[in-house]
Design brief:
By secondary structure, this protein is α+β, with helices and mostly antiparallel strands. It has helices at about 55-65, 65-70, 75-85, 100-115, 125-135, 145-150, 165-180, 195-200, and strands at about 1-15, 20-35, 40-45, 90-95, 125, 190, 205, 230, 235-240, 240-250, 255-265, 270-280. It starts with a strand and ends in a 12-residue tail after the last strand.
């Protein structure tokens, strides 16, 4: 068994074939680790721009990759064939920091070849998700690779972050720091039909308050001043991608506008809440008669 830590760099371009924007891969990098997390191989290749003609300025600045650099690269099909040959027939688990790289690799594969799957990847772990589990951080919190390294006390100064190979190597160092044989297998997913169905699923914000996806028990607000449940002052209404209502604390008199967002994920409902304190000059939008 080996671990393959994958990272991609990409450029957002307009794809005529799909009549929409696509993140076109411009670099593929990966490291291969043995069961003791020792690096036993590496892969790095630049990918020619075949969809877009212009390299976004922020991409050039972040990666230090130029249009001229990409001209000496390989086509997407050639780069993937090389990557596939590099992996070989070894039993492996592929990992990336967040599932964005796998999604982009799949979208590029479908654009160029109409392929519906990544047949050369056997199983997969979202390393960012595993990191959140090990560090007990919120699943809704997006933690970048550099921030994760800082939390782990790892030094990234010797890595050229935002370059695919170095990002892979630093992610491998993070994996080594958090790996636990007791729970890691729970995060390994076979790349089967269900895996691709989840990758294709597009999360949506629930806008109907009477939907069974809305847990009405979550429609509350705790006063930030005294920590007690506040009284609802207005009806809940949907605005700015969430349900909003005003509350007033009967103990300290503080008022606030609370927002609760319900987002339907593939196999769960993600709930996020926020609040804005109101001044005494602001009037409630709609009094709750109940």
């Amino acid at each position: 068994m080996v671990y393959i830590i994958l990272d991609l760099e990409w450029n957002s371009v307009y794809g005529v074939k799909i009549r929409g924007f696509i993140n076109e891969i411009i670099e593929i990098g990966a490291v291969m680790l043995d069961e003791r997390f020792r690096e036993i191989g590496s892969f790095s290749v630049l990918v020619k721009s075949q969809i877009g003609k212009r390299l976004q300025a922020h991409v050039k600045e972040m990666t230090n990759i130029s249009k001229k650099d990409l001209e000496s690269g390989y086509t997407f099909d050639e780069a993937v064939a090389m990557f596939r040959a590099w992996i070989g027939k070894r039993e492996h688990v592929a990992l990336s920091w967040g599932d964005g790289d796998i999604r982009v690799l799949l979208s590029n594969t479908r654009y160029h070849t109409s392929g519906r799957a990544l047949s050369y990847i056997q199983s997969y772990v979202d390393l960012q998700d595993y990191f959140r589990h090990r560090m007990h951080t919120s699943r809704s919190q997006q933690i970048g690779l550099a921030a994760a390294g800082e939390l782990l006390g790892l030094d990234c100064t010797n890595y050229a972050l935002h370059r695919a190979l170095d990002d892979s190597r630093f992610a491998a160092q993070c994996l080594h720091a958090i790996y636990d044989p007791g729970d890691f297998p729970d995060f390994v997913r076979p790349c089967d039909a269900a895996f691709y169905a989840q990758l294709e699923y597009k999360p949506r914000v629930v806008s109907d308050i009477n939907s069974p996806l809305v847990d009405k028990r979550q429609l509350y607000y705790i006063c930030r001043g005294c920590g007690r449940p506040a009284a609802q002052a207005t009806e809940w209404r949907f605005a700015s991608r969430g349900f909003q209502a005003e509350f007033e604390c009967r103990h300290c008199g503080a008022r606030a506008k609370a927002m609760v967002t319900f987002k339907k994920m593939y196999n769960s409902v993600e709930i996020k809440r926020s609040a804005k304190e109101l001044t005494g000059n602001e009037k409630p939008e709609c009094r709750n008669e109940k």
